[in-house]
Amino acid sequence: MRLCLINPSNPLVSIIKVKESRWNRYRVWKPLSLMVLAGLTPPECEISIVDENLGVPDYPAMPRPDLVGITAFTSQANRAYEVAAQFRRLGVPVVMGGIHATMCLDEVMERVDSVVTGEAEGIWPQVLDDARHGCLKRRYDGGLAEINEVPPARHDLLAEGYAFGAIQTTRGCPLNCSFCSVTAFNGARYRQRPIPDVVREFRSVREKRVLVVDDNLIGTRPEHVARAKDLFRALAQANLRKQWVAQATINFADDEELLTLAARAGCSGVFIGFESPTTEGLRELGKKFSLLKARDFRASVRRIQRHHILVVGSFIIGLDMDEPGIGKRVADVASHYGVDHLNALFLTPLPGTRLWDRMKSEGRIALDAFPEDWKYFTLGFPVATYKHLSRDGIIEEMISCSRRFYSMTRILRRVCRSLWERRRPLISLIGNLSYRSNIRVECKAYADFKRQRGHIQLLDAQLED
Ligand code: B12
Ligand code: SF4
């Protein structure tokens, strides 16, 4: 049986010119879901993985697969349906799974032959068996996987084109922040893979740099932190000579031993969701953890950086309490915290989240011509109606935030600081300049977006006349 697994691109965010510049390899990330699916697939199947972010192949010219499996985040759904339609026209059955298929089941069912909701580990062998016998069901539900039974991903596939490998060590999050899909999809129970499995799989990752995709590598409870420490000890002992980056809550900073062990195990960077510069904002987002202990964020960031771990801070703009000036405020607060890079995102109601339910009930999902409009759900466009900010207004806030944080003066200040503290000044410089050069790309994307949406609004008005 010939199986083709596809990660569809979203032209609004995809870097498909990976071969044109070496640096673009740092901006594409491996579709781990498909590598895990490949790991669940029996060896007699011939598997190919297509990541459209590396380029879109001529599908009809490819050897005809017996089954196509497509993954999609919400932002990729639109393109996923185009790819599905192409294969279905060729008579190839298409199965779709992943977060969007789970959250928007009815929409997806209309466009593919079979849908797999939830995690695939418990159900994928049956899907393949049914496909082999020509009796695919319309729907399968994998629910939540037994974490001990998650097999190693196939790191031998998709061997080229990426600077980072990818691995997952835990699933689930009890915190259920209002804007995030993780608790709804992976459950509130924090599930940890056995450490020896993780170390073995880490060894099989080919790249020297690795993205640990866990939503919160250190968890929320003392026993989670203890497990993280054990994992770091095991990784250090295995002496893998890999550098990795991960996501964690700011609590990462609270435990010196944890930081020492993480650095020793190869941790070189951490993404932290600060989300809002104010306590009211954190409350609005349900980000309970960051509210605890009247934390000094600046001191926390410093503690992490002292271990030569880079801190990327993420903030959301567009909360109900955000007013004109929020862009500047976020840039100043991020500079005050001392983060090495800032990622500012538009508040985006993703299907399946508490935020989606609220905004939908308030009639505030502004871009709702689905499935076409899903392509704007990248957190890089204003897709909702914001309380105190117009669509143009929030775009201006976003631009002013980036321009302020990535002004040459502030970049130089950050680079000098990392030079002084001997914390990889060159990486700091390259990273900052890359974010800065992105501002131009983003401004162009906003201009196209406004043109496109303005055009659509005009058409709507004409139709109403
Ligand atoms: C790594 C990651 C990324 C990487 C993506 C790498 C890649 N190409 O896959 C990067 C950094 C590029 C990224 C980008 C974005 N991401 Co992201 N990302 C994640 C993260 C942290 C882990 C994903 C992962 O690898 N999981 C491990 C694999 C094994 O699990 P899985 O993907 O769920 O796959 C399992 C099942 O879903 C199922 N399955 C999946 N696909 C298929 C297909 C078939 C056929 C079948 C049968 C089963 C199946 O089987 C797998 C095994 O059980 C998730 C959070 C999460 N916990 O999932 C967020 C998440 C997926 N991202 C999210 C978002 C919003 C984004 C962005 C839109 C915005 C942003 N800036 O973050 C962009 C979108 C980019 C785009 N192309 O459009 C949201 C998506 C919500 C939604 N409804 O779409 C999530 C859930 C985080 C959140 N806070 O809500 N992301
Ligand atoms: S944002 Fe982070 S802490 Fe909040 S629910 Fe999602 S994964 Fe958990």
Task: Explain how this protein is built.
With 465 residues, the protein is an alpha/beta fold. 41% of the residues lie in helices and 15% in strands. The protein contains 17 helices and 14 strands. The chain has a 6-stranded parallel sheet, sandwiched between helices. Helix 7 packs across helix 8 and helix 15 runs antiparallel to helix 17. It is globular and about 60 Å long. Bound molecules: cobalamin and iron/sulfur cluster (SF4). Iron/sulfur cluster (SF4) binds next to helix 6.
Please work out how many helical segments DSSP would assign: 17
How would you write the strand order of the largest sheet? 2-1-3-4-5-6
Q: Structural class of the secondary elements?
A: alpha/beta
Provide the residue-averaged pLDDT.
Answer: 93
Q: Which ligands does the model contain, each kind named once?
A: cobalamin, iron/sulfur cluster
Note the topology:
Elements: E1 2-7, H1 32-40, E2 46-51, E3 67-71, H2 77-89, E4 94-97, H3 99-103, H4 105-109, E5 114-117, H5 124-132, E6 139-141, E7 164-167, E8 170-171, H6 182-186, E9 191-192, H7 195-204, E10 209-212, H8 222-238, E11 243-247, H9 256-265, E12 267-275, H10 279-285, H11 288-291, H12 297-305, E13 310-317, H13 326-337, E14 341-346, H14 354-361, H15 391-405, H16 408-420, H17 425-464
Helix pairs in contact: 7-8, 8-9, 13-15, 15-17, 16-17
Bound molecules: cobalamin and iron/sulfur cluster (SF4).
